[in-house]
Design brief:
The protein is mainly α and 250 residues long. The protein contains 10 helices and 2 strands. A two-stranded antiparallel sheet has the order 1-2. Helix 3 packs antiparallel against helix 4.
């Protein structure tokens, strides 16, 4: 962030938003927006509780399993679509449709297929994350430097070596970008899945606080989820920056 020609840490912009939030809350324009200081106090109260720890563990488990399945399915399928023209033509349209489609509208239908429970949330996370991972993996492999592939073949590289030592490394930044976007969408999938279908985990707490109009606790939970999504995104982005040198010239 740059202000008046000087570089200012991004935390400063957050501080400005928190001050504005506090001012709006103190002015009591709406009971839905409490002062930010009250949100902080509520967070200090609810985060150490056993109820929050149990809910967080359920949500993290659903998120982890769903993301693992999305990665295991998305990356190989993206590579296959990039390398096999027929597969790319057949599946490409559907992947693009599901990337742009409102997946949340399909979540209630999962109840009829897999029932109510944590399995539904895992499938929701998978659906939210897998298509963007497929798409970015495909784009990364398609745009891999062809001269590197030709060079590897000229030096006698086997097919699996071309994939592991050239294509995947060249596409790694794009793949990590897809993983970062998929993780962010996966966090949305956890919350939406737990709210709409299976009232468990963090979704149960959201429901509890909103029904009893505990807005400080509700916003404290919202901020906590946002911070988790931001932390996951930044961790993957940091890894992405470290492997940028694998990218081919665009």
């Amino acid at each position: 962030m740059t202000l008046f020609g000087k570089k200012i840490p991004i935390v400063f912009s957050l501080l400005i938003w928190f001050i504005v939030w506090e001012a709006i809350g103190q002015a009591k324009f709406s009971s839905i927006i409490p002062p930010f200081s009250g949100v902080i106090q509520a967070a200090i109260t609810i985060l150490p509780t056993e109820k929050f720890h149990t809910a967080a563990m359920i949500s993290l488990r659903s998120f982890g399993i769903g993301m693992a399945l999305a990665i295991l399915a998305g990356i190989p399928l993206g590579i296959l679509m990039a390398r096999v023209q027929g597969v790319g033509r057949i599946l490409g349209m559907w992947v693009n449709i599901f990337v742009s489609a409102p997946i949340s509208a399909l979540v209630p239908l999962l109840m009829a297929v897999v029932g109510i429970g944590e399995t539904t949330v895992v499938v929701t996370v998978f659906l939210f994350a897998v298509f963007v991972i497929i798409l970015d993996t495909q784009v990364g492999v398609v745009h891999a430097d062809r001269s590197l592939v030709d060079m590897a073949r000229a030096f006698g590289a086997k097919r699996h070596q071309i994939y592991t030592k050239v294509l995947i490394l060249s596409a790694l930044p794009e793949m990590l970008a897809g993983l970062r976007l998929g993780a962010i969408r996966g966090v949305k999938g956890v919350v939406i899945g737990q709210l709409l279908v299976a009232i468990i985990g963090v979704g149960e707490l959201f429901e509890l606080y909103s029904q009893h109009f505990l807005m400080e606790e509700f916003w404290a939970l919202v901020v906590t989820v946002f911070l988790f999504a931001f932390a996951v995104s930044e961790a993957i982005a940091a890894l992405e920056r470290r492997v940028e040198y694998y990218a081919s010239a665009r």
